[in-house]
Amino acid sequence: MPCPSAIARPSLFRRLAPCVCWLCAAAVLLVASPRAAVAQTTVPQFVQPPAGIYVDANGVLRVREVEPGKQNAHPKPAPKAGDKPVTVGPDGLTYVSLPKLFAEVQLDVAAGKPIPEQLHYLGGLTELRYILVDPEQKDLLIAGPAEDWAPDGLFAFGKRTGRPVMQLDDLVVALRQGGMPFGCTIDPSPNSLKASEEVAHKYARSSRKERLAALKDALGPQTIKVFGTPDDTRTAFAMLAADYHLKRMSLGADKSPVQGVGVAVDDSRAAAFRVWFEPKYEPLLVSADGNTFQLRGQRLQLKAGAFSFDPRGATPAAERYAKNFTDKIPQLAQSISLFAELQNIADLNVLAALVRTDRLDQKAGWDTSWVRRKEGGYPLPALPAPKLAETVVNATSGSIVGGGVNMQLNGVIAPDSREVDRDGETMGAVTQRAKQLRKGDGAAAVMGPAIQSK
Fold first, then answer.
1. Of these four, 54, 104, 272, 297, which has the most CB atoms within 10 Å of its CB?
2. Where are the alpha helices (DSSP H) in 1-155?
């Protein structure tokens, strides 16, 4: 992320011949036993993530280069004989009762038992589509498409589509935050501008390779900042990972798997700008009684601007990139699991925001105190929280590219962002299906007739 002084003086980088484009970004993809013992903190082992990112022994995020074309899509795990079938309702959706889910989780935690994967992965949900309150039955349900899953370190992927499934830890983080704003940034050191000037002067007659290496060494690592959410959670790791992959794509370091996205830099001139993720939903569809909600839209969009989270002053190339990227979000999320992870996190935080503003927990008679309690409540595993990120240097026009994630969800659930389901057909059908499943599955936390996913 460029500092204001760097933005005001892009001419400095024109003196680098050829110029360089440096990017501050990082991600963490670590392997931790999903539920070895929830009361314990398991030291993660490193994995080879899609973009080849890892954390070194000093807690610095670094890039491990991988073969071109292998960094974008996560391989889809194949079903194995004996896999447990996913639970799906008659409408193709899985319904999860949050009060019942957390009641079972609380009992497992109290008994020192591992949490079953069915609960940890929220029944295999790959998207949150409906939220239903049943005041009579004292229940609050979420519903969406689901798949059988294959755990892969901190992540788990659907065996049919390869899309990541939602996770209990992210749901707990969201409920504790109440849907309030959160995000991340990665900032250069205060002396970055001075260091760049010294490199430009000292290595003016050196080779491009030498100049790039000298600039990378002189700039040093950048500072990671996570706001509005704990920096040692899976939510923070997934968010940083998505942000990192975005930056590499914006520079062209990683090729987009979807045609028509392009890159964010303009080789004809040096410029400083930022690109970042924000939520993007269509108006919430709400039942007339305010007890059922449908989440709609592509969940994410890309913004560009000259300064952090300020959509003004972006270069024409950055604006085009942000528009192209936003238009292609549905396709990109099908190919890049990190972006789908961020969509899932956005969904869970919309749910948490509605619980807070519309008091859905009170409507359902659900006591969330144990879930929200950090001490003596649900034991979130504490993961390493990196504070520094390795600078990535790429030979381009001399542009400085920054970015981040800015999850502001209050606007998504605001009164003027809601649409009443006036004919009641959509919400009525979902409510009836939930009641039918409850009769068949009784007190199950995850409801629906079991069918094997194809």
1. 272
2. 4-8, 11-14, 98-111, 117-120
What range does the domain containing 336 cover?
A: 4-77+177-421
SS3 164: strand
Is the pLDDT reported for residue 146 higher than 60? yes
Cα 22 to Cα 48, 185, 419: the distances in Å are 24, 15, 44
Contacts of 94 (CB under 8 A, 6+ apart): 86, 87, 88, 123, 124, 125, 143, 144, 145, 146, 446, 447, 448
- Average pLDDT of 292-311? 93
What is the b/e burial string over 403-434, where b = at least 16 CB atoms within 10 angstroms of the residue's CB? bbbbbebeebbeeeeeeebeeeeebeebbebb
Give 292's strand partners.
Answer: 132
Quote the CA–CA distance of 190 and 408 in Å, as a whole number: 28
pLDDT tens sequence across 111-132: 999 999 999 999 999 999 999 9
Strand-strand pairing, 446-447 and 94-97: antiparallel
> Does a structural domain hold residue 347?
yes
Rounded Cα distance between 129 and 431, Å, is 13
How is residue 155 written in tokens?
């992540």
* Angle subtended at Cα 336 by Cα 308 and Cα 159, rounded to the nearest 5 degrees: 140
129 Cβ contact partners less than 8 Å away, ≥ 6 residues apart: 93, 143, 144, 145, 294, 295
Cβ–Cβ < 8 Å for 446, 168 = no
Task: With respect to residue 325, please indicate whether it lies within any of the assigned structural domains.
Answer: yes
Look at residue 162 and tell me if it is in a domain: no
- Give how many domains the chain has, as a whole number: 1
The reported pTM is 0.83
pLDDT in tens, 246-274: 888 887 878 899 999 999 887 665 566 78
Rounded CA-CA distance 385/374 in Å is 18
In a domain, 435, yes or no: no
